[in-house]
Model the fold of this input.
Amino acid sequence: MEKCSLQMKDIVKSYSGVTVLKGVSLNVRQGEIHALLGENGAGKTTLMNILGGVVPSDSGVIHLFGKPAKINSPADSQALGIAFIHQELNVVNDLKVYENMFLGRELYKKSGILDAKRMCDETAKVFKKMNVSIDPREVMRDLQTSYKQIVEIAKALLMDAKLIIMDEPTTSLTQKEIDNVFSIIRGLTKDHGVTVIFISHKLGEVVDICDSYTVLRNGENVASGSITQPDGSKIKQDDLARMMVGKDVLNQQVYEDHEIGEVVLEVKDMTVGDRVKGVSFTLREGEILGITGLLGDGKDELVRALFGDLPHTGTIIKNGKPLCVGHPSQAKKCGIGYLPPNRKENAIIKDLSVQDNINITVLEKCRCGIALSRKRERAVAQEYCEKLRIKTSNIMNKITSLSGGNQQKAVLSKWLNAKPDIMIMSNPTQGVDVGAKNEIYAEIMKLARQKIGIIVTSGEAQEIIKLCDRVLVMYHGELRGELRRDQLTEENIMILSTGGSLN
Amino acid sequence: MQNTTSKQRFGSLKKIASNNSIVLVVLAMIFVATLAEGSQFLSLQNFMNILRNHAVIGIIALGMSFVIISGNIDLSVGAQMVAVAAITVSFVNSTGNVVLGLIIAVIAGCAMSTITGIIVTKGRVPSFIVTLGMMYIYRSLCMFFMQGGGFYLDKTKAPFYTQISNYMLFGKIPMPVIYYAIMFVLFWFISRYTKLGRHIYAAGSNEKATRLSGINTDKIKILAFTLLGLAISVAAIVESSRMGSINSTSSGNAYELNAIAMTVIGGISMEGGKGRMSGALFGMLILGIINNMITLLGVNVYLINAFKGIIIIAAVLLQRKDREL
Done:
């Protein structure tokens, strides 16, 4: 039997009463690339955080290289030879390559001066081992993204890491760069016996590069095994997707039949930098159109461009008339509303009251002569608080005093207040508890019945399935496919968004 | 029963006190000054003196408040005031037309600040840097055109101009105090009762969210600068009229810092989005009373700025505590 470099057994972890990991096990053999798969919230990150010493587990045992290991802090984890490479690059662009490599662990000469030469030599040694040619004295900023990623891997090797965890390492890379990084990873595992745990949503990649896999769902092990089947063929992406999603997905009915009218919006050849490449689609009155895809595949850039928040090329035609939306204020005038993702950063005006936040989009409605009428502002805000059941002790309190769900409802109110004909919503239920989630879904259904064209973008497949009449799936900035409501399954969405095609 | 109501009353009193700790500071300072100096401090004339001496910077501080609330800062206000005053004085001297002179002052001030605002927003350069540059430019150009000296008002050509600031209403109230009051009401009204005012707060609080609410935040920030320009113009008129001259080296020095001090003492946060116009008023009063007390109490004048420094830091510490409560 081959040596196991990592065994995690019966790991349990709960956060404030909610069990995230319900006795998960993970076995990784030495020198292999092991894929850890699962939907958002399946528990992958928590499991890896336990391994990285970021959070403690409630119970369970970890064996590393045959010996029981106790990991209480990130330093413990590092000392045991585990390196964690995060999704976003942790490099300092203004420093040189070797300075990044030795950041925080600089080598000194006896005199107390930095020993640049030795650091460069050490760096060059690691690069040689990896078969890459990067000048250690080059400034980080001048490197391509894939080389930055490679420097991160090199840093892990420099620390003598025997187990490298890579959390979605390819999201910010182009295909060519991905190939580059992959060949390095393969070389490391084959020639130097390094073990890699690979977290990715791109199942194509997983099948390409990994040797074995473990699938988690809702904090439990679902399946694990070899990518290469006993008969010599590789496992199918669809099978992996099905395992990740599961059959027993609880589906509460929120969708209601509604009438779909004329085409209200037509988008032709929309291109946004290199993030969205020539996307065309139409939207009808009362239709709920979903746009989904993996993180970084362009769905958010597409709708932001539609709202005038990003420069773009292409035509936007609304009710037969071409629109020019160069700024969100123009989009608002054209009757387009946008509920952005990341509420705290993009939607909440933290120093203003609940009332002021609700009224901010169309303050002119509350004008009386040249002055704003506080009375009218209050009436409008109160109306929406009642309609959407926003729970607040006083609408003059700051919006930050509300719970996440109520904040989101207030943000939605500010757009309902503007009475748009087209409403774009990105992750409409992000950071919202279950109760408020369903209230927001009901509100979206109500909008559709009022003949408003609705675009919902979400990374959560379940949300898209619950709501949408039609779904566009994006992959690497292009439309990969379109699904009718009767074709909407998580499997189909997963297949398209990981670059596969139906039938 | 009675107990609870009195508790509630006490609670709301506490709330008022913590929301307006700045008012308490002013009252405390007046109290101390009265104890120390008695009748001289409390006289109407002394108060009018305080207000008159600080009206010019106070008016600039009103505009500065808008710019700071919108998330920017302006270091060029002192130099710009001298530039506007120089343009106005030389125009009045050569034509004798005071009304047109005032209009030109307003147009020049607003235009200069608008340009600053456009560079800041469209050029995406931090306002600190743009206005630092503007400060040097205005000051240097003034010195160049005025050859290091000053412009003196030609009192024979435009006798009315000096009256703008030196006339006493009812023989008691200096005109600068009236101008300050008018400007205060205007800025207070804009900040509280207009769409622009609300948008200035919103843009300073969370620019991204405000932009994504379909509001042209660049335009809002430029308009905040334009309003500061208006305040600078009024300040330039009041200052040049009161002094009967404007000097390229000695006028308007450290006005920007004093104006910023007033706004900060008044609880207007440098982070943007927070603060009220009443704060700018109390900030002016506090600085004014300190200067006045030090003179009346016969403290060494060299210590004035040390007191100012202590008050600035103390005021911000106090407000920090308020926020946490």
